[in-house]
Amino acid sequence: MTKRIGYLGPKGTFTKLAVDAAFNGEDKHSFKTIPECIDAVNENMIDIGVVPLENAIEGTVQLTVDYLVHQVRLPIYAEIVVPIQQHLLVHSDFTGDLSEIEEIHSHSHAIAQCHQYIHKYIPWAGIKFTSSTGKAAEIVSGSDKYIAAIGNKLAAEEYGLAIYKENIHDYSNNHTRFAVLAKEKETVHIKHAVDTEKTSLLITLPSDYAGALHQVLSAFAWRKMNLSKIESRPMKTGLGNYFFIVDVNQPYDDVLFPSVKAELEALGCKVTILGTYPVYQLDI
Q1: Average pLDDT over the chain, rounded to whole?
Q2: If you read the UniProt record, what top EC class would you report for this enzyme, in one word (predicted)?
């Protein structure tokens, strides 16, 4: 049975690149925003949703994390990691040079990833933020102004743009993690070898008291459980109230994780498993 897969669109986004690399022959649907894609999974409009989770340069995509925590609690059943290559895209009829470019359009993360290039070569250009790199390419394709977009090769192909300059990102080791969301684990089938496995936890402290975070981390440390990430986010219930997202580099088991959960709950913490899932490193 063909699965319906949703992604942050329009065509030409890095999310679409990740979906194309991970899933073949599926029914794919683009959404304008991350919340729309997550809602579509929750409302059974699609079977699988793929949304950006974290970039190696710019950090966590906070909208994704906050929406999954505060609005729609869907489990993560896989993670896709892809390399990010940003290019300067112009209209196919553009024959000028950089000095003629008046505006640069792209997602805020893409702009930030290319900050040094923009600062050095196009500092005069106005910055216009868009909902995605694909949307930026779409805007440039329909404009007769001297504007450019920052995006990938797929965006250039989808919208008939020319690549004025390749690889303008500031750091070569740039990757983005994408979360694969679904209601049922059996729905997700990615035809690639698993690189590693991970478990993500949501931990809420009972109150802000001295040594609370140290006690939380100690529960993992003495069990020799390796944490690849720990990040605090506001609870949105008042200043100073935070929850923590913790990534553990191992799958959920019936011994270590239940004992960690019991120890933290004894301290007054609330622990929620956001997902235990395989990680796929894809070359695109």
Answers
A1: 89
A2: lyase
